[in-house]
Amino acid sequence: METFSTADVFLDPGYFLLDYEEMEREFKIYVYKDRDLDKHYLLPRKLTRNALKVDMFFKNLKESRFYTENDDEAHLFLIPIETHRMQIGVIATKGLPLLEKAIQVVCASGNALEFMPHKDIVLPAEELQPKMVNDISRFGNFCSCNVAPFHAACIAEAILEGCVPVVSLSNHDLPFNDTLDWTKFSAIVSSKKDYFTATGIEGENFTKLHDYLKKVQKHFKWNSPPVKFDAFHMIMYKLWMRTQME
């Protein structure tokens, strides 16, 4: 079995790797086509440094081994739209029984309709817009996010900047929280009032957190084309695991 250098930041590295390898061999996603789809999503298109990660997700999927045009071999069926770009409310889908088991892939759980942690997935963003950088409170080597709708995006940005995030395990939108062991690379608090206690971590304890943080950065980074174990593949793994729950 293949080994990987970041095994010790996973809750169950052996289980993860076996399922990950199966995903790479088997997983297929069919993308629905629509005659008016280009009005809402123009693909393929050139990605820029400031491209939204949802754009990169669609581009990477379309160019990956996971994409299929054969609906008979698909495990999941993707509707490639962003409702906020279409200027409609997602509440319009509540009356459709077929969508009850649909998986939301969202950038911010606070903006999602009835976000369900056991089913829905948060897309870890990076390269926040300048106006969102102020949402990150930085005290020395620790970072915490202040604005709830962009909580996951801020945390991903902090990790990629090498700043140990201060988090609560009660936050249901921690990216990959059912796969990664957040106690290894973040300061865990039970409430906001414990924040300054967490930032007091120093010496060997901080060094250990930061060493694990550097290991986990690759799982939050977006690449085009994607590379093994990066953010795109971690999202694909979570989608694959959702199909195994049926």
Question: What are the SSEs and their pairings?
Answer:
Blueprint: H1 13-26, E1 29-31, H2 53-62, E2 67-68, E3 76-78, H3 83-86, E4 105-106, E5 121-122, H4 130-133, E6 136-139, E7 142-145, H5 151-160, E8 164-167, E9 187-188, H6 195-198, H7 203-216, H8 231-244
Parallel strand pairs: 1-2, 1-3, 4-5, 7-8, 8-9
Antiparallel strand pairs: 6-7
Protein name: Glycosyltransferase
GO molecular function: glycosyltransferase activity
Features:
alpha/beta, 8 helices, 4-stranded mixed β-sheet, 246 residues
User: Span between N and C termini?
Assistant: 27 Å
| Count of folded domains | 2
What share of the residues does DSSP label as strand, in percent? 5-15%
Largest beta sheet, briefly? 4 strands, mixed
Mean pLDDT: 77
Order of helices and strands: HEHEEHEEHEEHEEHHH
Shape: globular
What does this structure look like?
This protein is α/β, with parallel strands linked by helices and about 250 residues long. It folds into two domains: about 140 residues, no CATH class; about 90 residues, no CATH class. The protein is about 30% helix and about 10% strand. The chain contains eight helices and nine strands. The strands form three sheets. A four-stranded mixed sheet has the order 6-7-8-9. The longest helix has 14 residues. It is globular. The protein starts with 12 loop residues before the first helix and ends with a helix. About 5% of the residues have low confidence. This is Glycosyltransferase. InterPro entries: Exostosin (IPR004263). One of its GO terms (molecular function) is glycosyltransferase activity. It comes from Quercus suber.
